[in-house]
Design a protein that fits this description.
By secondary structure, the chain is α+β, with helices and mostly antiparallel strands. The protein folds into 3 domains: about 5-105, Rossmann fold, CATH 3.40.50.20; about 130-200, Dna Ligase, domain 1 (2-Layer Sandwich); about 205-440, 2-Layer Sandwich (D-amino Acid Aminotransferase, Chain A, domain 1). Helix content is about 35%, strand content about 25%. The chain has 15 helices and 22 strands. The strands form 6 sheets. The protein has an 8-stranded antiparallel beta sheet, with helices on both faces. A 5-stranded parallel beta sheet has the order 3-2-1-4-5. Strands 7-6-8 form a 3-stranded antiparallel beta sheet, covered by helices on one side. Helix 4 (about 90-95) links the parallel strand 4 and strand 5.
């Protein structure tokens, strides 16, 4: 087992990793930009090293600076969290060459499964259902047109590299295709340095459901149930829940088996999610795989009674993970609390938090790096924290969430708390009658 781990990230995920390391008796190193000098993760780590100025390109994305911090502090491993360098194959490779363990998949695995076209082709070969579309990267708009004619409109253009909704366009008619292809490709080039696109049939009114998996170097791959991530805005998730209220036990079993089959086919090691679209008939289609821990991992931890970060560290150190429980206990939601104004198209609202009071009580978990007096910098994502609410069933979890939000106070910046409170009163949400277009339909 490692003696010291450097966390190459910031905010709540850095603090989350630090907590597990402390429980495992592992020393921690926080890295921070000038903008994050007063962030809580720098206070609770055993050591903290400044790695650059405010810009993420000069700090959290600066590989030489991070490796230098690991070297001078004697860190044996690096946990990348999510975002930034978490799915960067070059970073994983350089860590390997520097005799520092990257807590995540191998460089080759990140490259293969991070390439959506390759991942889709791999899944298809082993019999995992995939959305009809191109077999791989599309070279130009004319090729996209031919495939669109075969699968039928509407279609979805997606960047082969990256995520977060960048380089993604829904095309409803042939007349839009050339313009949208160029726009998506240009956006992908700007965001990921890779203009490659692929095309798939657009599944209308789907649920976005992902399976949490974990693999180790001993050939084990386990599934830890599903998370329903359908409440999203511009492909950015806002509310997640587990188990999914629309997935039957038979469908869940099929999805877990498909996820395990796909992961085993590439000898996957580490934490990952296999993501699917599910239609109203509970047909499910593979869309992509994320080779990292997810923002929404806490809800799986709550219902499965497992520490996924601990398992990541065990796997990275060469250990073997245990078979998880098969039946989830209760129901859990995660509400992302962002510094955004939902009344003005979710406009960012950075600034100083004058006062913050987190809700408490049984079944409540707060993952946050914020505190009264903390200034939310404008340079990074707007996530203040995550409210995780557990209940014995979905109805109980919703009642508890309503109570929790009554106690949740943040002054000084606008937040998404009022948005979440409105969702919790929405009849369609309460009846589990929602899909990925929920916000578009209900919150214009």
């Amino acid at each position: 087992m490692f003696n010291k781990i450097l966390i190459a990230n910031r905010g709540e995920i850095a603090l989350r990793v630090i907590r597990t390391c402390k429980e495992m008796g592992i020393k921690t190193v926080a890295v921070y930009s000038e903008a994050d000098r007063d962030s809580m993760h720098t206070m609770f780590a055993d050591e903290a090293v400044c790695i650059g100025p405010y810009s993420s390109s000069e700090s959290y994305l600066k590989i030489p600076n991070i490796l230098s911090a690991a070297s001078i502090t004697g860190a044996e491993a690096i946990h990348p969290g999510y975002g930034f360098l978490a799915e960067n194959a070059e970073f994983s490779e350089i860590c390997e060459e520097s005799n520092i363990k990257f807590i995540g998949p191998s460089p080759d695995m990140i490259r293969k499964m991070g390439d959506k076209a390759f991942a889709k082709s791999t899944m298809r070969k082993v019999g995992v259902p995939v959305v009809p579309g191109s077999d791989g990267v599309i070279s130009n708009a004319d090729e996209a047109k031919k495939i669109a004619e075969e699968v039928g409109y509407p279609v979805l253009l997606k960047a082969s590299a990256g995520g977060g909704g960048k380089g993604m366009r829904i095309v409803k008619a042939e007349s839009e295709l050339h313009k949208q292809f160029q726009a998506a490709s240009n956006e992908a080039q700007a965001a990921f340095g890779n203009p490659d696109m692929y095309l798939e049939k657009f599944i209308e009114n789907p649920r976005h459901v992902e399976i949490q998996i974990m693999g180790d170097s001993h050939g084990n791959v386990y599934a830890y149930g599903e998370r329903d991530c359908s409440i999203q805005r511009r492909h950015q998730k806002l509310i997640e829940e587990t188990p999914s209220p629309i997935i039957s036990s038979a469908t869940r079993e099929k999805m877990e088996k498909a996820a395990i089959l796909g992961a085993k086919s590439v000898n996957y090691e580490g934490a990952g999610t296999v993501e699917f679209l599910v239609d109203k008939y509970q047909n499910f289609y593979f869309i992509e795989m994320n080779t990292r821990i997810q923002v929404e991992h806490p809800i799986t931890e709550m219902v499965q009674n497992i520490d996924l970060i601990k398992n990541q560290i065990i796997v990275a150190s060469g250990g073997e993970i245990e078979d998880p429980p098969r039946v989830p206990i209760g129901h859990c939601f995660e509400f992302r609390i962002n510094a955004e104004d939902p009344d003005f198209n979710f406009r960012p609202s950075p600034g100083k938090i004058e006062m913050i009071h987190f809700p408490g009580g049984f079944g409540i978990r707060n993952d946050s790096h914020a505190y009264s007096g903390y200034t939310i910098p404008p340079y990074y994502d707007s996530l203040i924290g995550k409210l995780i609410v557990w209940g014995v069933d979905r109805s109980h979890a919703i009642s508890r969430a309503k109570r929790a939000f009554e106690e949740f106070l943040i002054k000084g910046v606008k937040t998404t708390i009022p948005f979440h409170q409105k969702v919790l009163e929405n009849k369609d949400f309460l009846n589990s009658n929602y899909d990925t277009s929920f916000i578009e339909k209900n919150f214009k």
